[in-house]
Amino acid sequence: MKWLCCPRSAATAVTLVLALSTSRFTVAQESPGDRIDAFVRDEMQRQHLPGVAIGVIKNGALVKAQGYGVANLEHGVPVGPTTIFQSGSLGKQFTAVAVMLQVEDGKLSLDDPIKKFFPDAPETWRAITVRHLLTHTSGMPDYEEGKLDYRKDYTEDELARFACGLLLEFPAGSRWNYSNTGYVLLGAIVRRVSGSFYGDVLTARVFKPLGMATARTISEADIVANRAAGYRLDKGK
User: Fold this and answer.
1) I need a labelling partner for 237 at 20 to 30 A (CA). Which of 21, 88, 164, 174 fits?
2) Is 64 in a helix, a strand, or coil?
3) Pseudo-torsion of CA 117, 119, 125, 129, nearest 10°?
């Protein structure tokens, strides 16, 4: 349930909207491109990022696409404009689109209880609706650190069984708490009502129509050209 092509961890891609103003202190010879480069490198140092890719768009036109640093520390591979990054939680907006496509197709209602799609789920799930999952108000806890192997490609059924074993944090609709678990369940719901994997739904109805040629679902097994490695900061390293 993860996506490629945008940032998550230390090897990070960002789209920057930069307000570049001039002042009497600006060096006359310094170009906007130089100021962007300086800004990005300062941020990389501040945030301890090994690699970044940026796209700068002005008036609907791409005016700068550039990579900085490295996409793979072990091999010293530089980041370039075509480097593919894991999108992390930016993928949730696409999962939500896949859900809303099913709503528009009449295959799903936002007020459907999720036990309709997971009949073996605990009785505590009975009050949870699709809308609750979308808005992070279901009470579904996030995956606990260390319980899942993030390098493994789990099936939807395996992830749903894992979620069924978690204790709800609060009654559905009573408050908000961010939940990756809820969005995994939404992806499974899309398959169950559409008959297709939610990533295939997005490829056919969103990515291809919009010309998003490099957007895809993540797989640890597939060979993905120009894929960046992911890193996290641990004790300053």
Assistant:
1) 88
2) strand
3) 20
> Quick one: pLDDT at residue 33?
85
For the chain, the structural domain boundaries read: 3-85, 90-209
pLDDT per residue over 91-112, tens digit each?
999 999 999 999 999 999 999 9
Q: How far is CA 119 from CA 97, 100, 113, 190, in A?
A: 24, 22, 10, 16
Rounded CA separation 100/113 (Å): 16
Running DSSP on this structure, what letter comes out for residue 207? I
Token code pair at residue 28: 């006359």
Catalytic residue among 31, 87, 89, 174: 89
Q: Which residues of 121-139 are buried (b: 16+ CB within 10 A; e: fewer)?
A: beeebebbbbbbbbebbbb
Q: Would you call 89 a catalytic residue per the annotation?
A: yes
Q: What is the fold of 90-209?
A: Beta-lactamase (3.40.710)
Strands of the 51-58 sheet, one edge to the other? 11-15, 51-58, 61-72, 77-78
